[in-house]
Amino acid sequence: MAIPTASVASISANLSSIPVLNGTNFKEWKENILIVLGCMDLDLALRIDRPSTPKDSSSSEEKLEYEKWDRSNRISLMIIKRSIPEVFRGVVEMEKRFVKSDKAETISILFLLLFRSEILSKLTL
To answer: Mind listing the pLDDT tens digit for each residue in 2-14?
Structure first.
């Protein structure tokens, strides 16, 4: 099924409104990320905890809830990573190797690292 042109244009406009994180624009970057993810209805993974992994015996509602959360998490991570320079992404990848985490915690780790960087930069001024 083809995505309507207006939808592609809208997605492109949303993504291009997110500035690249450069170390001095964290507040603006974070606000734009949250606005874009909210407008695209992809902020579910930021708003609620990861639901339990569905089992064969889970209801269709539980399975759907998990699928929605998982999709929100995956796409949010792609959008967030797209706006972070590779030099910062390398730090996140190293952190993931040393901290046992699942996909649900990846966003938390990412924001923790970014907040830590912001706090440390303010302390050194």
So the answer is: 545 447 777 778 8
How confident is the model over 33-52, as pLDDT tens digits? Answer: 999 999 888 899 888 889 99
Distance between CA atoms of residues 23 and 121, nearest Å: 9
Q: How far apart are CA 33 and CA 75, in angstroms?
A: 12
What is 29-77 written as a DSSP string? Answer: HHHHHHHHHHHTT--HHHHSPPPPPP-TTS-HHHHHHHHHHHHHHHHHH
Cα–Cα distance measured from residue 23 to residue 104, given in angstroms and rounded to the nearest whole number: 25
pTM beyond 0.70: the answer is no
Rg over alpha carbons for the chain, rounded to the nearest Å, is 16
Q: Three-class SS of residue 84?
A: coil
